[in-house]
Amino acid sequence: MRDLLSLDAEGLREEARRLARPRGSPDHWSRVAVVLGRIDDERLYAVWSGHQSLRAYAAEELGLPGDEVIGLLKLWRMIKGAQTITLDAWADVPRNRATWIRKVVDSGGDVVAWLARCLGAPSARAFENMARVALGGEEAWVKVELRLPDGVAQLLSAAMTKSLRMIDAALEPDRIHDRDIAFRCVEVICASYLQPGTTE
């Protein structure tokens, strides 16, 4: 994608027209953001067609709605500001996740750290939840129901009881049935299993 940074103005204009053509498989958001970002930074919209803004140029010449253009420009500014991240790295990031990264970065988050969290998140939902919490929102809660054989249920209860000492040694064993304690027990059990070197 670095080729987009070296295109001259005429090459950039052709790329913009190509991106605007309706096709079966649209280009990745990052490619479109770079093209629009350069056009805006260099005020090429005025040079090419006398438009007063990128939004006007994109709407008339490329058929892109204004809110789409603004969203892509915000992503371009994030990409441009993240000088230690290669352009190609963004090609692995879906647009929805990139938008959440941008929101967190706009609020003071570190773009490198959040890109790593994004790429390491097990799902889009998990990453969105992380971002919402970072932005001051409440963590999403999910209800999980399991049907277990009695022997496995007893193993789970024993493990949860044992995990209580990691939470608070003063907690009584029957507290594993309290909603606000049970999830912390499960968290301790899962975290201990996922410690480096404990699994293949």
Number of domains: 3
How many β strands by DSSP?
0
Helix content: 55-70%
Structural class: mainly alpha
The biggest beta sheet is recorded as: none
- Please tally the helical runs, counting DSSP H or I stretches of 4 or more residues: 11
Contiguous uncertain segments of 5+ residues: none
Into which percentage range does the β-strand content fall? under 5%
- How many angstroms does the end-to-end distance come to? 36 Å
Query: Radius of gyration over alpha carbons?
Result: 24 Å
Shape: elongated
Short description:
The chain has helices spanning 3-6, 9-20, 29-41, 44-49, 54-62, 66-81, 95-106, 111-120, 124-134, 150-167, 179-193. With 200 residues, the chain is mostly helical.
